[in-house]
Amino acid sequence: MSRAPILKVGIVGLGRLGRRHAENLASRVAGAELVAACSPVPAELAWARDTLQVHHLYADYAAMLAHDGLDAVFLVTPTSLHPQQIIQALQAGKHVFCEKPLSLDLEDCRRVSAEAARHPQLKVMIGFVRRFDASYRDAYEKIRQGAIGSPFMVYSQTCDQYDPEGFFVKFAATSGGIFLDCSVHDIDLARWLLGNPQPVKVYASGTRAIHHDLQQFQDVDNGVAICEFDNGRIATFYASRTMPHGHDTMTEITGTAGRLTVGGNPRKNRLEIADAHGVRNECLPSFFERFEDAFLTEVSTFVDAICQQRKLELTLDDATEATRIGIAMRESLLSKQPVML
Ligand SMILES: NC(=O)c1ccc[n+]([C@@H]2O[C@H](COP(=O)([O-])OP(=O)(O)OC[C@H]3O[C@@H](n4cnc5c(N)ncnc54)[C@H](O)[C@@H]3O)[C@@H](O)[C@H]2O)c1
To answer: Which residue CA neighbors atom 31 of ligand 1 most closely?
Structure first.
C-alpha cells in the first residue's frame, strides 16, 4: 500500500495561539511537517528556530508563500489580516487553515468564498475548535441519533478568567469585540447543534463591569445576546472577560425529549477538595487547557482531509454565517435595537 506524502506546512503568526499550533504541527500531527514560519517579530522566529528546529524563517508572508514545496499554510494572525492572507495563499496554490473568525466583514467573507471556489482542489478550514472537542462531538452525535428528541434551544457561554493585565483590551482594537471574538464559537456551535437553522433576529446587550477602558473600542467585558432562528429555534449567548474562578465554557441543548449539557462544571481535573471552606474543585485557567486535545484533533482532521482527499464538514459558509450573526449582535449592542437578518 502506498503511503500519502507528508504535507509541508508553514505557520504564520507565533503569538498566544500560533505557538500552540506550531508545537502540534512540529511533532504531534502525523502526516504533516512544519517546514517554515513567518512573523514580523524576530524573537518569535528565533523561538521557532531554537525550540522547534524550523529552519526556513520569513518576516514577509509573500516570501514564505514562495517557499519551494510548501503545501499548506496555517494562519494564526490578527483577525483583520485573515481574508487577505487566505486569498493570497489560495492564489499561490496552498491549502489554508485559518483561525477564527474568518473575518469581521461580510464582504470580505464573500471574497474569500469566491476565491476558494476558483480553487476547488484546495482545502480551506476556519478553526472552530469546539467542533473537534470529544464532549461536543458526543453531544452532536447523540442529537443526530434522536437522544433529546427535536432540539429547539441552545444556551452557550464563553467566559474567560479575569486578567488584571487586560491583554484583550489591547486585542480589542482588532478582535471585532466580544461577540465576534468569543461568542462566534458559541454561534457556530448553536448552528451546528440545531441543524443549521436560518437566523431571523438578534438582540444584544452588555456592560463594562471592570474594564472601563474598553469604551474606546465600543466594546464590553460582559455581553449577552439572543438569536431567534426559523421554526421557533432559539439560542442565548453569554460572553465574559471577568470570571474570578477561571475559564468557564459551557453549552446546554434542550430538546423535546431531553437536555444535554457540555462543561457544566469547568473543573481543572478530577481532584475534589474537602476542607473548612466546603467541598470543591479547582477550575480550568484558560481556553487552551480546556481545548488542548481539540486543537490537536482539529489540526489532524485538516491534515488528514488533505492527505486522504476527504471532504471537510466545516465549511466557509459556516464561518461566514457565524460572522454574519456576530456582526448583527455587535450592531444590536451599539444601537440597543433588535437587528433583523
Ligand atoms: N480558536 C480559539 O479558541 C482561539 C483562541 C485565541 C485566539 N484565536 C484567534 O487566533 C488569532 C491570533 O490570536 P492570538 O491570540 O494568537 O494573537 P497574538 O496577538 O498573540 O498573535 C498574533 C501573531 O500574528 C503575528 N503577526 C502580526 N502581523 C503579522 C503579519 N502581517 N504577518 C505575519 N504575522 C503577523 C504576530 O507577530 C503574532 O505572532 C486571532 O484571529 C484569534 O481570534 C482563536
So the answer is: 40
Provide the whole-model pTM.
0.96
Q: Which of 72, 42, 68, 71 is nearest to 57 (CA)?
A: 42
Domain check: are 230 and 336 in the same one? Answer: yes
Cell output for 262: 457540555
User: 15 and 56: one domain?
Assistant: yes
Residue with more model confidence, 3 or 88: 88
- Shared domain check, 250 and 193: yes
Instruction: Tell me, using a 6 A CB cutoff, whether residue 39 lines ligand 1.
Output: yes
CATH number at residue 194: 3.30.360.10
**Do 260 and 279 sit in the same domain of this protein?**
yes
Type of residue found at 59: A
Task: Identify whether residues 126 and 156 lie together within a single domain.
Answer: no
Q: Residue 321 Cα, ligand 1 centroid: separation in angstroms?
A: 21
Nearest C-alpha neighbor of 104 from the set 331, 286, 338: 331
With a 6 Å cutoff on the Cβ, whether 340 touches ligand 1 is no
Dihedral over Cα of 44, 292, 133, 231: its sign: negative
